Structures are given as structure tokens and as C-alpha cells.
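Interim report, section 4.2 (structural modelling).
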Amino acid sequence: MQHDAKSSSHAGLNVAVLVTVGRHPVTARARRADQDARAVEMALSLNDAAVRLVHAGGNGDDNEEALRGYLGMGIGEINLIKQASSADVVPALVTSLRDMAPQLVLTGTRAETGEGSGLVPYLLAEALGWPVISGLAQVESIEQGVATVLQALPRGKRRRLRVRLPAIATVDSSAPAARQSAFGPARRGELAARACASVPDELQEQWHVQPARKRPKRLKIVKSASARDRFKAAAAKADSGSGQLLSDVSPEQGAEAIFNLLKEEGVLR
Amino acid sequence: MLDTLLPILFFSALALAAIGAVRRVRLWRQGRPSPVPLMRGLAAMPRRYLVDLHHVVARDKRMSNTHVATAGGFVLAALLAIVVHGFGLDSAVLAWALLAATTCMFVGSLFVAKRRRNPPPRLSKGPWMRLPKSLIAFSLGVFLVTLPTAGILPEDAGSWVLALVLTGVVAWGLGELFFGMTWGGPMKHAFAGALHLAFHRRPERFSDKQGGEGRSTGLKALRLEDPKAKLGVEKPADFTWNQLLGFDACVQCGRCEAMCPAFAAGQPLNPKKLIQDMVVGMAGGSDARYAGSPYPGKPVGEHAGEPHGPIVARQGTALVDAETLWSCTTCRACVEECPMMIEHVDAIVDMRRFLTLEHGNTPNKGAEVLDNLIATDNPGGFDPGSRMHWAADLNLPLMADKRDAEVLLWLGDGVFDMRNQRTLRALVSVLRAAQVDFAVLGNEERDSGDVARRLGDEATFQTLAKRNIATLGQYRFARIVTCDPHSFHVLKNEYGELGGNYEVFHHSTYLNDLLENGKLSLKAWKGGLVTYHDPCYLGRYNGEYEAPRSVLKALGIEVEEMARSGYRSRCCGGGGGAPITDIPGKQRIPDMRMNDVRETGAELVAVGCPQCTAMLEGVVAPRAEIKDIAELVADALVIDATAEQGTSQDEATGKARRTAEEMTP
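Predicted structure of the assembly:
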């Protein structure tokens, strides 16, 4: 569907996709990360966009195999920013993105390996001063530096957003699935390695990391007569109960509401 | 006047044929190099023609006799006519021999003509319809012009008008048979066919004088060492030259089409058309002149190609559509039936390799299955650590503990399938009853790579195969036994090229051995009528038709054969990744196979393959029950005190007891 994205007036749209080394959920083998691959797919399906892939991190043998998975989607090279394994990749990525000056940066919502906090896009956006779109489902059009996109909301809802570029967008599992990675192009593609000073992640070094313990799940027993009710119960997302929906408010009112919420939650003191 | 005209005619026809031959050879040489022993190949050609080719042709007695008369007569007549009329050798003996040869050819041509009066749909029409007339023209013309030489008629019999008419008839015959042979007429099959037999890509598939039956069914490995090399076949010129030669040998008899399960199911594949499309691609042009049945649902004339143009276009149409290639179940029915020994399946997999490895375009569930094979070593994406969950209560001996066993039981990916787990349980109970020293690889086993290879993913196949070979290399065992014909074929015929050579048995063969050695005692069969479905990968791929039948016989079952059984068995539709790529047709292949079963009136169909079991059981009821041979044997096991002594039994009493069991009603 992205093939139809109107792109007449953004000739030479520059898209950078940040990719990571993924990890198969069952066997823990290195692979292309699912959400990052979807981000690459989305970038490739934009009409006449120049797509560049960027990976920052250490590079073991496993990692190279996994990164080649992205090359197999039909991409010539990946810009590999070499980093020490304990490094904080954000500063290196910021420098690199400043150099490349892409109009749009796509990436998965969270990595499958490492911290996997999903904070990298936000940190990048903060450093670059760009807006962030989370849960991008579709790019509808890009005209005169403004992108019209669909954002995925829970339970299949979509919200149309207009964003001034440059921007960073994260792609989650609601985006179209990634195309097959072909062996030949994957093998021929190039990993263009570039050294960049590593900034050690001091906070992380103090952390103690251990595998998560599997917790038993409480069964949800739904007493209902009709299949429709049972389906609704199964498909429902847990409601938070509190919160308010603001629509048609001025930016000031919105900011006020967010500020109040952050204070309430103790994020801002 | 004939004396001057005939030599001119003959030598100009021969010269034109020679020019045509050079042009044709240059078309084939567009292909990739493939070294063949030239002289040895040519020397082997007559035997390959007379024995192997005629073995296939003789399945249709009438056509075989017709061909012997026509072709034999023609070859003899052509040689003699060149001597008698070309060189003008005035020998009554040769002339009489020439008369005999042309008579023989004439009789054959009449039978060819008769068949063409109301040809079956599988035959191509077009230029092929004029062939019998040309054959008659040649045989009759040469016969008549030879009469004066033989001394039956005076030299000056008839007028110059008659002589001219005769010359015209002979010229027509010569045009078709000499000129047409190398310039793309129907007789091309004789020229290309002879060379194809000599330079065949699989010389080992032909029988030898020592009585070896000759079988070569394993796919040839793709060399992956050179990262710059293109993988698979993108353009007609990417085939090896002798593959192109093989395509050119096609005689368009349509026997492949009549046997192809995908064609019968209305999927867009016709093996004959595919080979003709390759010929079109090799020479360049469109398929508009093709005069046989099209791919179901795809009219002729919309596709075109060239030697250095793509076969499958990324978008739009080129020579062939991708779904044509993905319809194939790799059942080899076409190869088995082809009198010209063309290797359709090799060509299809070569083209699939390009689509998967270079385009990354495996349809439907293909990509997902391949990803699973890469990440989890099984097509279903199951946890490889859960391989042995089905056998939690069976306490199966593991190779990792035993290190050494008589039989390595290869379980296959059926371990994740609840239906196949029943077969495996049955097989284990039979092996235990026969006190076989066996062990399994357990979680160390991986998919054999069969599906990956048929889907064109040679890289994943080779990775899986090499890892399996490394695992197998750690242990000592005399033989591998498996109940999956696909694993059986791959382990037996396709691992060798990668360095794994094993003695592999399909469980039906192994059970038959156990029965013949008196290791098992069985109750007599009490059920109803039973038929047997030959799995392609056991039968056509490995020539095992007898062992399963003899196991069934030992059970006391009289097999009610289906119309298509043995080497003509119809595929269940489950091979070659066809259920994964799932190309739609008008009906389903397993439904057609179940109809074959229904026609026999059998209540039960015995199978020997997890794929066949799954495909046939997927057919809606009412239908015959489906049981694996291992299950039938396990159900009939008599486990008594004597059997438990097992090894102390000597062979003679074992055999005697087995026959006694068979006698019981």
C-alpha cells in the first residue's frame, strides 16, 4: 500500500533507518530485529527515497550475519558505526545523523537485545531537537517537508498526524511485515565500517543484569453467554481507568494538562 | 534426369542440415559451461537410446513399434539413399535394402498418420500434424525413385513429368527430415535428442551392461563459495549448455502433461509447455507458435523471452510466471515418463533458486518457513529443545548417551506433528518388539533440509546438511532408518555431495528385512480392502516399490492396486514445498488422489510418508482411513514369550512361523 504514497514533491527524500541486531524469541539466535526490519520495509516502500541503514554497536561474527539480514532486503550497504560493547550509542548516532542530515529517521520501537528500553529514539530526538512519532503504521504522503502519517493506536485504531520534517519515527508490529531477506544480496552487500569514539555508558556498568524470571499469569475467567462478549473480553486491553481525552484544545491547554500529569505522577518535581 | 537431380537434392539438403546444425549448436552453447566426456558420451549414446530410452517408450507398445519401424526405417533409408542416390552407387543389393527400409518406414508412417487422425489432447498439433505426411512423402518418394536402380523398372520408365513430380515429393521429404531436423522442425527431436543422450547432465541415470539399473535423482548442489556469483537461473542462458540441449530434445509427446498432478489440478503448470518456453527463451521470441495445451488459466501468446532476458519478471510478464514454477510438487512423474530423459525438476529448482536466493520472493508461507528453518532448525518454528516432548514416556535411547548403536532412528520434523507422532510411536514399538539396537539423536537432530532445498534455498539446505553431517559424524551406527521418505532421500542421495555417506533405509524396507529374518510375528489381517499409495520420494526417487507391498503381504493384506501406482503413482500434493507455496488451482491434488483410492473401493489406504498422511487425511470424509505401514505392523504385532527371546530364534523357525501366521484366516 505504501507504493502509492504520494511523493511527487519530495524528490530525493533522505531516509535513515536505525537497525539493531535482533534475537529470535525461541532460540535466541541473532537475526534481523523484527521491528527494525519493518522500519526498513517502510523506508523501501517510500517512492524515490534514498534509504540509508545505520547500525551502531560492537560487531561480532553473529552480529555481522544478523546485519546481513537487512542487506538481503535489497540494500547495498549498512553504515556501521563501531562502538565498544559497553558504549552508549546515542552520542555516536547523534553525530552520525547530524552528518547525514536525513529528513526522516525510522527505527523499531525497541531493540530485541541490550537494554531494550525503547528510549533511543526519544534521546536522539531530544539531542537533535526533532519531533518523535511513535507507532508509525503508514506514511501516507510527504509534501513540502510535511509528512502525513498514520499512527497505530491500541486495538487497531489509527490516528492521522501531520509532522514537519525532519522527524524520528518508531515502527512497531502494526506496520507491514518485512520482505524476505535473500541470501545473494545479503552476502554481496557491504558493511561500511566507520570508527567513532565510544562514550562508555557509566550508569549501565553499575547495573546488575540477570534473566527475567517467568511469572505465572493469572487466568482471566470471563463469565459470559455469547461468543461476542468472550471475544471482546479477550481482545480488550486493560483499561487504566483514569486519564482524560483532550481534543480540540489549544497547544497551551494541552501542554498544561501534560505538565500537570507529569507532576501528579512524580516525574517532574 | 533423376540421376542428375537426386544427387543435387541430397547434397544440398545435407549441406543445409549441416548449416542448421552449427546454428543450433551455437544456440545451446549460450548456456553455462558444463564439462562432459565428449567421446565417451557419444560412444554410450546408442546403448542409452536402445535400452534406456526405449524402456520408457515401450510402456506404450503400439507407439514403440511405430517408432521402431519409422525411425529405424528412416535411419537405414537415409544412409542407403545417400550412398545409392547421392553418390549414385549402382548396386542392386543396396537398392533392394533401400526398398526394404523405405517400406518399413512407410508402414510406420501410416501408423503415425493414424494416430494423428484423432490425437489425444496431450499431443502438440501445429507442425507436428504435417509430420506423418512428410514421412510418407520421404518413404514413398525414395521407394519409387529406387525402383529403377533395383532393376524393377526400366531406367527410362515414365515421362519427365513423372520424374519431376517424384523429385518434388523426395524434396518435400528431405526438407522435413534433413533440413527440418536442424532448423527447428518436428524432426529436431532426433538430432537434439541423440546429442542430449550423449551429453546428458546425469550420465549416472542410465543403466549399464553390468545390470545396474541407473538412478540419479538427488539435486545437484549449488556452489556457494564465490560471493560474487549469481545464484540459480535467471535467464535461459544461465542454464548449462547441456540443459538447453535437453530442452531442445523435447518431442512434445505430452506424456509429462498427462502425468503432472499440478496440471491435472488446474494449477498453472504444464511440464511440456515449460520445456517449450525454455526453448523459446533460448532462441528468443514469443510462445505464440506453441501448439499444445497451455498452462491452465494462462492463454498462449502473452509471454516472450530472450536468451539474456529474465525468465521471471519482478513485475509484469516475461517468459514464465513465478506461480508456474511454484506449482511443481517435485514428484518427478514428468521425468519418469519423459522418453527424451529431460530433467524438468532440476530446471524448476534451478529457477526457484534464483527467485529465493536472489529475488527473495518465495510465495505465501515460503519466507516464514525458511526463516523458521534458519532460526529454529524446523519449518514450524517450534522450540528445537522440545523435539523429544512427544516421546517423554518412551524413554528412547539417545545417541549422545549410547554413542554407538546398530540403527540410528531418524525421526524427522514429524516429531512436532501429532498425527506423525502416532506413526513414530508405532515404529518404536515395532523396533522394540524386534529387539533392534537403536538410538535417536533427540534434540541434536535438525530438519534434513529437504523443504529448504525444494524451495530453492540452497544456502539453508547446505547449512542444515553440514550441521547434521557433523552431528552424525560423532556417533557410530551401521545404518539410518527413517519413516520420512523426504529425509530418506536427502540423507541417502543428497548428503553425499556434502560429505555425508550413509546406509539409509526407509522404515518399510527395514521392516521388510525384519520380517524376512523372522524378527517379528504378526497376527493375520482382519480388516477390509486395502490399497497402497506410493510416496514419490520413496518410489520414483529411490525405486522402492516392492518392500512396502511385501510388508503388507506379510500382514496378510492383498493390495488392491490403484490405476496409478508404482512408478506412475500420483503425487499426494505434499512434496516440493507445494503446501507452503500453495498456488491455487481448480481442485486439490490430494482430493484427486483420494478419488483414485475410492475407485478401488478400499476402506484403508496404507502410506509410508508423513506428508502423504497429512495431505490425504486432509481430504474431507467420507473417505478411506489412512494408516502408515508402521502402524499396521504395530497393530498386528504378536508379542509373546518366544518373540521376547528374539535373538535366540533362528531364522528358519521364524520364517516358518511367519508363513503359519499368514495362513490363519
